[in-house]
Amino acid sequence: MAQKDPRVDAYIAKSADFAKPILSHIRELVHATCPDVEETMKWSFPHFLYKGMMCSMAAFKEHASFGFWKSSLILPGSVEPSEKGMGSFGKLTSISDLPAKKVLIGYIKKAMALNDEGVKSPTRSKPKTVKELVVPEDLMEALNQNSTAKAAFEKFSPSHKREYIEWITEAKTQPTRIKRLQTTIEWLVEGKSRNWKYMNC
């Protein structure tokens, strides 16, 4: 059986109490179904690799998520994990929110088969969906006023830039948006990504 990544152990240990059993359950099921699976941390959360990206899981303050890299080819009507933070099975608050063990095993086997066949994700084959990144005016203005923060932001990958942009634009009120904008500049000056707290797992 493939070795487990200690960073994933640390990630689960740091997760909220409700999320720990969910993440552990998913992890055990993936390993049991795919003995050759490899674990890694990408974009600050655990990923499972088998001849390429296969699936990933994450924990948030009030829910956890689990998604397949080629979700749209595995679950009819689902979206890719990159499009929705809630993964392939919605917001998970307990193991019972996941499909039955037998059903999940079937999905994992299907994901393995797709990777065995070298099938590419239809979403990730479209370059324009990857390139489309609009920086809001207030963030651009703040970056222009701080060369250190701007340089750090420009060095980030599109996914890390998107994390900051979405965090700012999803603010419910203007005071919250301003606060997040200030925090963004402070963290960028220090060279930190949006989810830097999870980076040193």
Give a written overview of the molecule.
With 201 residues, the chain is α+β, with helices and mostly antiparallel strands. The chain has two domains: 6-121, Aspartate Aminotransferase, domain 1 (Alpha-Beta Complex), CATH 3.90.1150; 133-198, no CATH class. It is built from nine helices and four strands; from the N terminus they run H-H-E-E-E-E-H-H-H-H-H-H-H. The protein has a four-stranded antiparallel β-sheet with strand order 1-2-3-4. The protein is elongated. The two termini are 23 Å apart. Mean pLDDT is 84; it is low at 79-84 and 124-130.
Under CATH at level 1, the class of the largest domain stands as Alpha Beta
Number of separate helices: 9
Strand content: 5-15%
- Which spans have pLDDT < 50 for at least 5 consecutive residues? 79-84, 124-130
Determine the fraction of residues in helical runs and give it as a percent range: 40-55%
- Assign the CATH architecture of the largest domain: Alpha-Beta Complex
**Number of E-state strands:** 4
First-to-last CA distance: 23 Å
Shape descriptor: elongated
CATH topology of the largest domain: Aspartate Aminotransferase, domain 1
Strand order of the largest sheet: 1-2-3-4
Radius of gyration (CA) equals 18 Å
Structural class: alpha+beta
